[in-house]
Amino acid sequence: MLPRMFSEERTCWACLQPGTQLRVDRKGKPYLACPLCGTYVFFRTRQALAGLALVSPVVEEIARRMQADPHYAAEQQQLVARSRAALFDAMSLPLSPAARSENAVVGETKKRTA
Ligand SMILES: [Zn+2]
User: Fold this and answer.
1) In tens digits, what is the pLDDT along the chain, a chain of 114 residues?
2) Model pTM?
3) What is the separation of C-alpha 83 from the centre of its chain, rounded to a whole number of angstroms?
4) CA of 75 relative to ligand 1 center, distance in Å
5) CA 80: distance to chain centroid?
């Protein structure tokens, strides 16, 4: 039977949704797997396990605060939208209509607060 830490449901580092699980690959190395967005985070070295110890609690806290505080959630969504736009711009990828719409809302919010 696997230790308890393998059965705990975690928040995904990528999509911030619950449901990510710590698993062990066929070589005996731990990794996180999100069934919702398909993100996998592999910990190939002992040093890489620092991320599991230090980043996971921060991600859990961000998700918890976003649930509890709509203002904080809106701020985080604006950061996500700006980061996504910058990434797609750097990669020369067109934004999806949904992402373009989100960024338009972020732009309007920015104008109102400026
Ligand atoms: Zn995910």
Assistant:
1) 667 778 789 999 999 999 999 999 999 999 999 999 999 999 999 999 999 899 999 999 999 999 999 999 999 999 999 999 998 888 887 777 777 776 666 555 555 544
2) 0.72
3) 12
4) 20
5) 9
3 state SS of 40: strand
Structural domain that includes position 32: 4-67
User: Do 54 and 76 have their domain in common?
Assistant: no
**Planar angle of CA 88, 100, 67, nearest 5 degrees:** 95
Task: Please report whether residue 112 resides in a domain.
Answer: no
- Strand-pairing partners, residue 33, are 21, 40
96 shares a domain with 60 = no
Q: What separation in Å is there between the alpha carbon of 90 and the centre of ligand 1? A: 23
Instruction: Find all residues with CB under 8 Å of 58, minimum gap 6, and list them.
Output: none
Residue 99: helix, strand or coil by DSSP?
Answer: helix
Q: Report how far ligand 1's centroid is from the alpha carbon of 114 (Å).
A: 33
